[in-house]
TrEMBL record:
One BP annotation, GO: protein secretion
Membrane recorded as keyword: yes
The UniProt record lists the keyword Transferase: no
Mode of membrane association: Multi-pass membrane protein
InterPro entries for this protein: Bac_export_3
Membrane-spanning intervals of the chain: 12-39, 51-77
Key words of the record: Cell membrane, Cell projection, Cilium, Flagellum, Membrane, Transmembrane, Transmembrane helix
Any single GO CC term annotated in Swiss-Prot or TrEMBL for this entry: plasma membrane
Protein localization: Cell membrane
Domain of life: Bacteria
Full protein name: Flagellar biosynthetic protein FliQ
Short name of any one Pfam family annotated for the protein: Bac_export_3
Amino acid sequence: MGPEVVVEVFRNALYVIILLVAAVIVPGLIVGLLVAVFQAATSINEQTLSFLPRLLVTLATMMYLANWIFATLVGFANELYLSIPELIG
């Protein structure tokens, strides 16, 4: 097992992590930005106003994408499991 194989496995793991985290975080960031623009336009300086919409959007996104997230994780684990002979030999 050379360093190229380890780097490739690590690269694939980072790609899956970034993909899954971005899919959950980006909608919350967009809603937070929209609420911040609304607060700036109306001069409302309430810190807790943006928390609930971001929380609800993040939870809804996780519920909506749960099947895809699980399938992606299972696919990565299966790919990793099937590559064990290559990693050992």
